[in-house]
Amino acid sequence: MKTQFKTLILAVSLASLTACNANSNNRNEDLAISEIVIKTTSKDKNPEIKVALLLDTSNSMDGLIDQAKAQLWKIVNELSYAKCEEQSPNLKIALYEYGNDNLNADEGYLRQVIAFSDDLDEISKSLFSLTTNGGNEYCGKVINTALNQLEWGDNKEDLKLIFIAGNEPYTQGNVNYKDASKLAHQNDVTVNTIFCGDYDQGISTKWKDGADLTHGNYMAINHNQATVHVASPYDDEILELNKKLNTTYVAYGTSGRKKWKCKQNKMPMP
Known about the structure:
Layout (H helix, E strand, L loop, with lengths): L2 E10 L18 E10 L7 E9 L8 H16 L9 E9 L11 E8 L2 H9 L10 H11 L9 E8 L10 H10 L2 E8 L2 H6 L2 H6 L5 E4 L13 H12 L6 H12 L6
Parallel strand pairs: 3-4, 3-6, 6-7, 7-8
Antiparallel strand pairs: 1-2, 4-5
Protein name: VWFA domain-containing protein
Pfam families: VWA
Keywords: Signal
């Protein structure tokens, strides 16, 4: 007999990331997975959340890729705190890069960096080490590849998500994004899209349509939005404490001793 969990609401709010305001009209999008009921056939088996992150690493992402990485990792971090009553779902993350000319052209300029894994440290390390080069971005191809390569399983009670981030037209490549979306929908995988640029441009280049086809969510990252510093009454005290903390470090090894002597004698560091 199936045990039904309470509704799991996973809301990833973008309001805290000023870089993720939708456009110059300050239109904000909340990326939310709401009213999702997770069931399991056994009380001994935790439900699973499987997420594939697909990141455009072409040259056109220069200046945007750090914001995209931060947004993807924010999503992972939020999902890691998800709860179903007393249970924590097993979170598994996979990572792909696409659009990089260093990658195999025959495979569509894409690469599986990590298959589904629960090692968040390794996933974070791999995500933030990705760099840009070249530019042939095929969204339909990378979605289709992730759907076919990864072990999503056939348990309809699991939550299966794709988050794809990029800034070129969603329609590029020889795999139609509509066909990829249809395959995702057939496998109970929801595709969420993150356009790195103007909100309306993302709509006109079909990023929103790509999300709508699987009942996913669409958002945009505005690279022109400045980061806002909010002053705190504790700023001065924190700076003073930081200065005191810096005096507690102990130098060791040959290099450490040299730097310590230079600091004591107010000489340039070697």
